[in-house]
Amino acid sequence: MTAELDKTRIPQHIAIIMDGNGRWAMDRGLDRTFGHKAGLDNLENVTTLCSNLGVKYLTVYAFSIENFDRPAYEVEALMGLVLSFIKMDLFHNNNVSFHVVGDRDRLPKSVQDKLRSMEEETAMYDGMAMTIAMSYSSKQELVNATKLIARKVQNGEMSADDINEETIRQHLWTSWMPDPDLLIRTGGEVRISNYLLWQCAYSEFYFCDTYWPDFNEEALHKAIESYQSRQRRFGKTEAQVEEEVKVKK
Ligand code: FPP
User: Fold this and answer.
1) CATH homologous superfamily, domain 8-137+177-248
2) 106-129 pLDDT, tens per residue?
3) Are 44 and 89 a contacting pair, CB within 8 Å?
4) How far is the CA of 237 from the centre of ligand 1 (A)?
5) How far is ligand 1, taken at its centre, from the CA of residue 207, in Å?
6) Residue 50 burial by CB count (10 A; 0-12/13-18/19+): exposed, middle or buried?
7) Ligand 1 within 6 A of CB of 78
8) Which residue from 10, 57, 64 is spatially nearest to 177, judged by alpha carbons?
9) What pLDDT digit, counting tens, does each position of 30-61 carry?
10) From the CA of 170, how far away is ligand 1's center (Å)?
11) Residue 183 banded pLDDT, cuts 50, 70, 90
12) What residues are labeled active site?
């Protein structure tokens, strides 16, 4: 049974760590790369489901900088998925724009070009923004932001005393999107693996055992239902938050 959701409290931004592709494939006696293909098919389903629910930003972890250390054939298979298997109808039919965050320079040139052309082809869509974190590392993102800010201080464009949280936010690869409301990790591990460390400071976390290729509508609804059952306090007390809700009504 799919959980009944409160349509007025759908998370604006869902981030997902799509884990478990390899184990999904091995359980079926298949090579791990088949799991990634199944994972991509499921990403298409989940993108459509999120867009239909009214989610505004979906940001998924497709490939970390650390993943470059996997066996070469697996890295090539993942790059091949980007080059050959992402269906553009997904974006055209759902008014979804496509984006990438990460250190693009480390990706093969053919993949960089493909990602850029997908971004351009979908730039006019103003429904949901679907972002893949590709060649991504949150620590590298923070190092990169620090360098950009340091250069501005060096050039005299700003003073060190002017640096605040907003300055750092503006220099992240994700500067144009709001922070995730809900972070989902599939596949049973309970860690965030260098994903959106700054951005998830106040996100609600949801971990489940389901392998990513099996994370279907029912599983997505369960995650959102869990999110909706929580009170987000952002450091305030329960009473303060309840008062704020009353004033809003
Ligand atoms: C983690 O599962 C998954 C990845 C490293 C890749 C995620 C990629 C997809 C879902 C396909 C979409 C891909 C692109 C490039 C758009 P794992 O391989 O670590 O699984 P395991 O934990 O079972 O070994």
Assistant:
1) Decaprenyl diphosphate synthase-like (3.40.1180.10)
2) 999 999 999 999 999 999 999 999
3) no
4) 39
5) 16
6) buried
7) yes
8) 57
9) 999 999 999 999 999 999 999 999 999 999 99
10) 29
11) very high
12) 19, 67
